[in-house]
Design goal:
Helix 4 packs parallel to helix 9 and helix 4 packs across helix 12. The protein has two domains: 233 residues, FAD/NAD(P)-binding domain, CATH 3.50.50; 159 residues, D-Amino Acid Oxidase, subunit A, domain 2 (D-Amino Acid Oxidase, Chain A, domain 2, 2-Layer Sandwich). Helices cover 29% and strands 24% of the residues. The chain is built from 13 helices and 18 strands. Strands 1, 2, 8, 9, 10, 11, 17 and 18 form an eight-stranded mixed sheet that branches. By secondary structure, it is of the alpha/beta class. The protein starts with 11 loop residues before the first helix and ends in a 16-residue tail after the last helix. The chain is globular.
Length: 441
């Protein structure tokens, strides 16, 4: 949408003087606009964002042009009134994890800090399209967790009670309701399905559209989105960051925020900071387009498998991490095999479907399975990373909290539990009780 656009040459101060006028006259999307452009030969559409050249200096640089980085930029300008901002991306925006996930949105976490954070994120998802004036195809079709035995059932009742006590939604479904919702599901296989937990506010969204929506909003408000601009190092003097070295040269900044998902360890190594994060590959698979057969998002209790159906008809499936550390965006065949086995076990008719494509995203896994939004020991350098499985669903809340930190230099109330020093002090957020085993979180 915004690729290959000629750069706009405008001086920094003049650019911001015209910011309000630009915002007022910016192209808005609407049904009437679509009809008008159709009648006008589609000649009135403008590029969704610019492709500017880097300026010598910015107040704030955000490294990472995915959902989190662009959401951060959006909130920096819309909520905190920051002016001089750049988002730096080594490829094209959305070319990392933002475009390599299974698009699940939910807020049903059980530890109170996580419940509050992800419930707030779901609330931001619910108003995102109006806020961005962009269709991100957010669909609250429900997220379903199947149970197959008494222990899983009891755990789901516990989870439902926790959700309700903290003001969000959750309910238990018996097999009769499930059979009406999913008549093609195999209820009597090796692991009989005895019921499920349902999170109705959960659902899916189109990952690319989320990136595009935040990019368009940030650009309209003066943020420079620098694509194909890879960070090669940091310039640090006397314990303070002065800017970043890139393939386009040095770019100065008062503050730098790192939001690069699975590349967190590699980027922070450039600043001499070792993070409590490992990178693992998480694979995903998409089938050929089919007629609607799976109305919501389903998680298989007898194995790590989840499936939903996109608006184009493709079945989006995923499973467990590849258990070894890797920074490659590709996976191995054992996980591939386990995902397909689970799919056919749960929905036998899928044995006749064809697989269309597969990919691997980099998961930045922490020692307790939850994220870091915090300042670093280097003054002016901040980190948003370690999102494990929760990165996409956290996009708007993570962007808002990181923007708060970058602008005010104080942690957002919702992000206080996600401090970097919790791994030293012992205030961990081990939702699954797995201990320091990132590949099991």
């Amino acid at each position: 949408m915004g690729f290959g656009i000629a750069p706009i040459s405008v001086e920094t101060d003049r650019f911001h003087e015209l910011g309000a006028i630009k915002e007022k006259n910016a192209m808005r999307y609407s049904g009437l606009r679509v009809i008008r452009e159709a009648l006008n030969g589609q000649r009135g559409w403008k590029p969704a964002w610019r492709n500017p050249e880097p300026k010598p200096n910015y107040d704030i640089i955000v490294i990472g042009g995915g959902g989190h980085g662009l959401a951060t930029a959006h909130y920096l300008v819309t909520k905190y009134g920051e002016k001089s901002i750049a988002v730096v991306e080594k490829g094209w925006i959305g070319s990392g994890n933002a475009g390599r996930n299974t698009t699940i949105v939910r807020g049903d976490y059980t530890l109170p800090p996580n419940t509050r954070f992800y419930d707030h994120s779901v609330g931001l998802w619910e108003k995102m399209e109006r806020e961005l004036n962009f269709n991100v195809m957010h669909s609250q079709r429900g997220v379903l967790f199947l149970h197959h035995n008494d222990a899983e059932r009891d755990d789901h009742y516990r989870k439902t009670n926790i959700m309700r006590m903290q003001g969000t939604d959750g309910e238990i479904l018996g097999p009769e309701k499930l059979r009406k919702m999913y008549p093609s599901m195999n209820f009597d296989g090796r692991f009989p399905i005895t019921g499920a937990y349902l999170h109705r506010r959960g659902g899916t969204a189109r990952h690319d559209a989320v990136v595009w929506g935040y990019a368009r909003s940030a650009d309209r408000r003066g943020v420079d989105i620098l694509q194909n601009c890879e960070v090669t190092g940091f310039r640090i003097e006397q314990g303070k960051v002065l800017g970043i070295e890139t393939t386009h040269g040095f770019i100065g900044a008062k503050k730098v925020g790192v939001s690069v998902a699975g590349n967190t360890s590699r980027v922070m190594d450039m600043a001499g900071i070792r993070t409590p994060i490992e990178s693992h590959v998480l694979q995903a698979f998409v089938s050929e387009g089919l007629k609607p057969i799976i109305p919501g998002q389903v998680n298989y209790g007898a194995g790590h498998f989840y499936i939903s159906q996109s608006d184009k008809g493709g079945l989006v499936m995923g499973g467990d991490l590849d258990q070894y550390n890797s920074c490659a965006q590709r996976g191995n065949l054992p996980v591939f095999e386990s995902v397909i086995e689970a799919a056919v076990t749960l929905f036998p008719m899928l044995s006749r479907a064809r697989l269309l494509r597969a990919w691997g995203g980099l998961q930045d896994m922490t020692m307790d399975g939850h994220a870091v939004i915090d300042e670093t020991p280097i003054k002016g350098l901040y980190l948003n990373g370690g999102w494990c499985y929760g990165g996409f669903k956290a996009t708007p809340a993570a962007g808002e909290c990181f923007a708060h930190l970058l602008s005010t230099e104080q942690p957002h109330e919702l992000a206080k539990p996600y401090r970097l020093d919790r791994f030293r002090t012992g205030y961990l957020l081990d939702e699954k009780g797995q201990g320091p085993n990132p590949n099991r979180q």
